[in-house]
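User: Here's a chain of 223 residues. Predict its fold as tokens.
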Amino acid sequence: MATPEDLEDFAIGFSCTEGIISAPAEIAELTVVSVADGIVLRMWLTGDGSDAFAARRRRFVGPAGCGMCGLESLAEASRAIPMASCDLRVRQQDIAEAVAALPARQQLNMQTRAVHAAAFWRSGKSLVLREDVGRHNALDKLAGALLRTGRSAAKGIIVLSSRISIELVQKAAMMGAALIVGVSAPTALAVRTADMAGITLVGVARDDGFEVFTHPERITRYW
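Assistant: Prediction complete.
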């Protein structure tokens, strides 16, 4: 179940965060097909992409729930993810500005009060934001949007409107992100995963401040 907007971004982003592709060029063809029951995204992969997809088979794609639906083993739930290795540094003010910029750009949520957002923020740059009824889908859409426009997730802040769970940390790591900010709290497993991956994890980011859970060295103390 997904919100039927930015579906090309979703298809590309989901394929990337699930480790099926590493670049949009690995998708030979992508079509969006309306059917009686909804919308089908059909992709044909180049080279060895089809083999990689078959190796990580899932019964369900694009889940709006826990993000783990369809995994066939506990090992898949704690899969290996890339280590964050960039030299990103941000100010406390950058985090505050990123969080403050989120609500005004959530156009669909203004109408429904029922969807999540995932955004990419760079100081002095415009915010890239995607929305979806599922928080995992929103992040996948953002991943696709960044890939399609050649932006690097390592160069800015990933901002989430939801709580931070392990699946979101895993997806952000696959995007190459080094800093994740959520307006709600992270789970304990998300904190452990971010710590092991070298990702700076910030939660409970509100108007009055935020909490840093892992790798605080990327955040300077001055405003």
